[in-house]
């Protein structure tokens, strides 16, 4: 009840005017940082342009221009170090010069834009060094001007007026010179420069808007979290925390994992062989609450849910605990006068959204149920956890009883985990290949390597199950090394047999867990080097969330890309950051998720989405692959939209390497015969 009452006051206390000032301060801090980063590049390009001017006989003009450029850049650097006066209620990061006598943030932003315009005017004088872009050096100067303008937009994401003030005079100078020179080519080029100017300005404005929105959310969450931390600190009692630390969760006051296990063991032992019901609850949508409101609000949600469970289960003499994260465990003895576990689960699912409605109604709950009379608590937890996994796999707000089918699956997973190392060492885990075709259905553009393991007892094991087992058993790296080695062996085999597929690249999937926890760049590049395989022949498929993950993940992808390994964003369009993932400099290809391709010919909405992705990929110089093509109608629709690459069962199913190479050979023979037939007919 207290948590519900406190939430509105916290939200209301984030003053809109203060929040706006925080955003402007963030903009200024980032603008200063980007300007100080860009100035050395500007100076280096200035010296280069001057050297070209000296070499072309424009020594006097070049030196005067260089002095102007250095003066403006020096002044910009000096101004960026002036202290600023923060508005009331605004704080900024460490290292920023702050003084009560300094100029306000808005003044500094206007000055930054003015100095950017001054620098742009200096670059607008470049025509003096190349006779109005008519000398042999014109291409060099035009390239430098366009490049530095693009760079200013790239660096100036926080405040659009800075890059716009810089690029406008610089590019308008180019346009003016080209129009003055006349001629169709020059006029056309001037038009393209104007279009380029407009595109850069639009990009700067969009980046500005995105930055302000991100800054607003960050500062709002920071303010809310700061206030909630104070309330939370006052509500905690240090004495109780020490007393319950060994067996209770400090956040919710419930039994923790160890405490629950011990209490549940005693609970079962005291009931003389009666049946017991164990429910494992996992909150659906809890991550979204954390992302939207911050971890402190998330902690408050967990506390409210814990209190609500205690009230709902009053009178059942149940053992209740927080199992970990956003999971809770409930154990009680089955009796005739008590509800069955399934009925309790249904009641909990119906009630959870009401219990957390003051947080926006984002939460649901998935429940796994285990009922046993003679099993120990460890087995019951294992059974309930398997049922919970199945409930979450089939959707949110569901419950699942542990049954024979789940018992078989649990046994399968245990066998898979037990046998995985031997399967890797014995090369029982193989690779099948599925071609990625040109939209005409004739040319094989590349291959996707797909993991296959036929378990001696359980048959075909899905790649997801294998990866999950590898993560649980610490075999993720050996598995990745094995798969890369299998792909390298396949490449060598195609070369040795003279297959028509010998030159096509092969893509291998890397899971988010592998990319986050393993040195994938070192592993892959090291194995390619040891096998004598050129990096350009391998592609790495990742999800779009991985493309925007931690700094370590991005650095690994950058290293792979720099070595020549193409990075492919798989399942594009279904993640939370689709467009942002394409801004990564290492992404070379995107694969449209199959959900957008299914029934494409009869889905106007999907047609619009796919067309947008194709056009976006073309504008960003990215290859676009449509995966999951299963009908001729879908293929025809993709051709009409200009999608160049396709993949799916309609074109070719995954198959072992020997079958894929044989298939490719037959297609090559058929294509040659088809090409020869018209010539023979003409000769006759």
From TrEMBL:
<dbReference type="InterPro" id="IPR035919">
    <property type="entry name" value="EAL_sf"/>
</dbReference>
<dbReference type="InterPro" id="IPR000160">
    <property type="entry name" value="GGDEF_dom"/>
</dbReference>
<dbReference type="Pfam" id="PF00990">
    <property type="entry name" value="GGDEF"/>
</dbReference>
<feature type="transmembrane region" description="Helical">
    <location>
        <begin position="138"/>
        <end position="158"/>
    </location>
</feature>
<feature type="transmembrane region" description="Helical">
    <location>
        <begin position="35"/>
        <end position="55"/>
    </location>
</feature>
<keyword id="KW-0472">Membrane</keyword>
<dbReference type="InterPro" id="IPR001633">
    <property type="entry name" value="EAL_dom"/>
</dbReference>
<dbReference type="InterPro" id="IPR029787">
    <property type="entry name" value="Nucleotide_cyclase"/>
</dbReference>
<keyword id="KW-0812">Transmembrane</keyword>
<protein>
    <submittedName>
        <fullName>Putative signaling protein</fullName>
    </submittedName>
</protein>
<dbReference type="InterPro" id="IPR043128">
    <property type="entry name" value="Rev_trsase/Diguanyl_cyclase"/>
</dbReference>
<feature type="domain" description="EAL">
    <location>
        <begin position="413"/>
        <end position="668"/>
    </location>
</feature>
<keyword id="KW-1133">Transmembrane helix</keyword>
<feature type="transmembrane region" description="Helical">
    <location>
        <begin position="62"/>
        <end position="79"/>
    </location>
</feature>
<dbReference type="InterPro" id="IPR052155">
    <property type="entry name" value="Biofilm_reg_signaling"/>
</dbReference>
<dbReference type="Pfam" id="PF00563">
    <property type="entry name" value="EAL"/>
</dbReference>
<feature type="transmembrane region" description="Helical">
    <location>
        <begin position="107"/>
        <end position="126"/>
    </location>
</feature>
<feature type="domain" description="GGDEF">
    <location>
        <begin position="274"/>
        <end position="404"/>
    </location>
</feature>
């Amino acid at each position: 009840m207290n948590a519900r009452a406190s939430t509105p006051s916290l939200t209301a206390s984030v003053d809109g005017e203060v929040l706006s000032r925080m955003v402007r301060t963030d903009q200024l801090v980032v603008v200063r940082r980007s300007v100080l980063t860009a100035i050395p590049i500007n100076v280096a390009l200035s010296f280069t342009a001057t050297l070209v001017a000296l070499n072309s006989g424009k020594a006097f003009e070049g030196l005067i221009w260089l002095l102007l450029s250095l003066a403006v850049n020096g002044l910009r650097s000096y101004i960026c170090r002036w202290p600023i006066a923060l508005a009331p209620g605004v704080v900024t990061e460490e290292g920023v010069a702050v003084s009560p006598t300094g100029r306000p943030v808005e003044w500094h932003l206007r000055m930054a834009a003015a100095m950017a315009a001054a620098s742009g005017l200096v670059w607008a004088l470049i025509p003096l060094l190349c006779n109005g872009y008519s000398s042999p050096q014109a291409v060099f100067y035009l390239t430098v001007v366009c490049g530095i303008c693009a760079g200013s937009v790239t660096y100036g994401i926080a405040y659009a007026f800075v890059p716009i003030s810089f690029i406008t005079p610089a590019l308008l100078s180019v346009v003016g010179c080209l129009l003055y020179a006349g001629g169709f080519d020059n006029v056309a080029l001037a038009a393209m420069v104007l279009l380029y100017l407009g595109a850069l300005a639009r990009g700067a404005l969009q980046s500005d808007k995105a930055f302000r929105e991100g800054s607003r959310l960050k500062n709002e969450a920071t303010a809310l979290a700061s206030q909630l931390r104070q309330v939370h600190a006052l509500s905690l009692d240090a004495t109780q925390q020490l007393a319950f630390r060994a067996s209770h969760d400090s956040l919710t006051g419930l039994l923790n994992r160890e405490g629950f296990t011990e209490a549940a063991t005693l609970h079962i032992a005291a009931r003389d062989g009666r049946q017991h019901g164990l429910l494992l609850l996992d909150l659906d949508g809890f991550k979204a609450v954390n992302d939207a409101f911050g971890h402190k609000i998330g902690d408050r949600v967990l506390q409210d849910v814990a209190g609500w469970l205690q009230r709902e289960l009053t009178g059942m003499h149940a053992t209740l605990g927080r199992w970990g994260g956003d999971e809770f465990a409930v154990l009680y003895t089955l009796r005739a006068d008590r509800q069955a576990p399934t009925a309790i689960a249904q009641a909990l699912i119906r009630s959870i959204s009401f219990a957390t409605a003051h947080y926006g109604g984002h939460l649901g709950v998935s429940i796994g149920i285990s009922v046993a009379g003679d099993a120990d608590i460890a087995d019951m937890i294992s059974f309930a956890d398997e049922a919970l996994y199945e409930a979450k796999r089939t959707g949110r707000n569901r419950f699942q009883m542990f049954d024979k089918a789940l018992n078989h699956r649990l046994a399968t997973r245990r066998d898979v985990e037990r046998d995985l190392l031997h399967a890797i060492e014995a090369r029982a885990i193989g690779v099948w290949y599925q071609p990625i075709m040109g939209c005409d259905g004739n040319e094989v553009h590349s291959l996707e390597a797909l993991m296959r393991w036929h378990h001696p007892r359980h048959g075909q094991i899905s790649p997801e199950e294998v990866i999950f087992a590898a993560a649980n058993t610490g075999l993720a790296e050996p598995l990745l090394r094995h798969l890369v080695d299998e792909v390298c062996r396949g490449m060598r085999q195609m070369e040795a047999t003279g297959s028509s597929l010998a030159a096509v690249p092969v893509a291998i999937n890397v899971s988010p867990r592998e990319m986050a926890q393993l040195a994938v760049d070192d592993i892959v590049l090291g194995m390619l080097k040891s096998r004598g395989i050129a990096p350009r022949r391998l592609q790495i498929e990742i999800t779009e969330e991985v493309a925007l993950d931690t700094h370590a993940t991005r650095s690994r992808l950058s290293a792979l890309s720099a070595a020549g390994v193409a990075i492919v964003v798989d399942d594009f369009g279904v993640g939370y950051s689709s467009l942002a993932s394409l801004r990564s400099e290492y992404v070379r290809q995107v694969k449209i998720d199959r959900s957008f391709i299914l029934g494409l010919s009869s889905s106007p909405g999907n047609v619009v989405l796919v067309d947008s992705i194709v056009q976006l990929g073309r504008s960003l110089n990215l290859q676009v692959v449509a995966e999951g093509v299963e009908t001729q109608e879908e293929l025809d629709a993709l051709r009409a939209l200009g999608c160049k690459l396709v993949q799916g069962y309609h074109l070719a199913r995954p198959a072992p390497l020997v079958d894929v190479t044989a298939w490719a050979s037959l297609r090559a023979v058929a294509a040659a015969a088809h090409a020869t037939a018209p010539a023979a007919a003409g000769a006759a």
